[in-house]
């Protein structure tokens, strides 16, 4: 089978099922596992993550407002790869090439080519997608085994934090403008023994006024900008710390602000989302967390950065 994955989470699923050799094409954002290096890259974004957060947001909003895609797809190369299966998504037109864009590009492919959209809104949907990819690729047994392993890890976290106090958690998914995380993230927080005070289970992330964050009185702030690593988040965290009233927020006052590798463990609805649950458990309940986590998965903000406030609170 020849597989094209235009979604980083789908690429991770395909590889986790032992199908790396069958993967013939990927998106520009697909960077894990390392074994996919050298695969044909079929897409390109109109903006890169090294730009300031505000510029990224404004550029994307401008394209979406005009009805334009924020991605370019190499139709000629896609056709030349002769895929049997193309994996894409409809959940977010900003996060990866959309189903509509891919469908248009795939119009010249043979009729036997299957175009499948993966669009989970919660953890259950993520696990179901793994099973679906297993069925589509003849790896149903491997998919079932993987899902059982992931469910086991989730259950171990749930048992470890059971009965413990549940801190109030604010999950920040973008810094300019300020977005709070949605979809599966509030569910991840709950499984890890916390209470998400702003996000809505199964619903998209959304812009929130800074005063709403202050009013939510979070015990913990977890910063997880979409597509950012810890190092990249560190470069832009001043967009939070410079806000008026930052030092008065309980989470800041008590040193409970964390930066995460959101690209790897929170934004992508694939197998590593379970590592994200384990990261949250380690942040919220370090006394009972036993998972062995990657060294660069998260870090505590070194100190409460009290800088010049923005002209007005947001």
What does this structure look like?
There is one protein chain. The protein has 314 residues and is of the alpha/beta class. It has two domains: 117 residues, 3-Layer(aba) Sandwich (Rossmann fold); 137 residues, Nitrogenase molybdenum iron protein domain (Rossmann fold, 3-Layer(aba) Sandwich). The chain contains 13 helices and 14 strands. The strands form three sheets. Strands 8, 9, 10, 11, 12, 13 and 14 form a seven-stranded mixed β-sheet that branches. A five-stranded parallel β-sheet has the order 3-2-1-6-7, sandwiched between helices. It has a two-stranded antiparallel ribbon with strand order 4-5.
The outline comes out as: globular
Kindly report the oligomeric state of this protein. single chain
CA distance, first residue to last residue: 51 Å
Radius of gyration from the alpha-carbon trace, in angstroms: 20 Å
Estimate the strand proportion. Answer: 15-25%
- The total of helices stands at 13
The appropriate CATH architecture of the largest domain is: 3-Layer(aba) Sandwich
Low-confidence stretches: 304-314
Residue share in helix: 25-40%
- Classified by CATH, the class of the largest domain is Alpha Beta
Order of helices and strands: EHEEEHEHEHEHHEEHEEHEHHHEHHE
Structural class: alpha/beta
**β-strand number:** 14
* CATH fold node name of the largest domain: Rossmann fold
């Amino acid at each position: 089978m020849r597989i094209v994955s235009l979604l980083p989470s789908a690429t991770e699923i395909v590889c986790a099922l032992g199908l790396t050799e069958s993967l013939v094409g990927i998106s520009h954002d697909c960077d894990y596992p390392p074994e996919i290096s050298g695969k044909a890259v079929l897409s390109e974004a109109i903006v890169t993550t090294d730009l300031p957060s505000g510029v990224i947001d404004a550029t994307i909003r401008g394209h979406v407002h005009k009805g334009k895609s924020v991605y370019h797809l190499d139709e000629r190369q896609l056709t030349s790869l002769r895929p049997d299966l193309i994996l894409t998504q409809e959940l977010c037109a900003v996060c990866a090439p959309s189903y509509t864009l891919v469908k248009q590009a795939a119009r010249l492919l043979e009729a036997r080519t299957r175009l499948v959209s993966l669009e989970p809104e919660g953890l259950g949907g993520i696990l179901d997608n793994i099973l679906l990819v297993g069925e589509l690729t003849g790896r149903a047994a491997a998919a079932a085994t993987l899902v059982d392993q992931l469910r086991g890890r989730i259950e171990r976290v749930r048992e470890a934090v059971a009965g413990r106090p549940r801190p109030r958690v604010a999950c920040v998914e973008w810094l300019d403008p300020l977005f709070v995380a949605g979809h599966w993230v509030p569910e991840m927080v709950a499984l890890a023994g916390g209470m998400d005070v702003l996000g809505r289970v199964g619903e998209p992330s959304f812009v929130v006024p800074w005063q709403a964050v202050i009013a939510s009185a979070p015990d913990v702030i977890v910063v997880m900008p979409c597509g950012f690593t810890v190092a990249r988040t560190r470069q832009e965290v001043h967009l939070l710390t410079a806000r008026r009233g930052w030092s008065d927020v309980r989470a800041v006052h008590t040193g409970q602000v964390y930066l995460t590798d959101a690209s790897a463990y929170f934004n992508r609805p694939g197998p590593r989302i379970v590592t994200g649950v384990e990261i949250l458990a380690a942040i919220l309940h370090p006394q009972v967390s036993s998972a062995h986590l990657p060294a660069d998965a998260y870090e505590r903000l070194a100190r409460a950065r009290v800088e010049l406030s923005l002209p007005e609170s947001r």
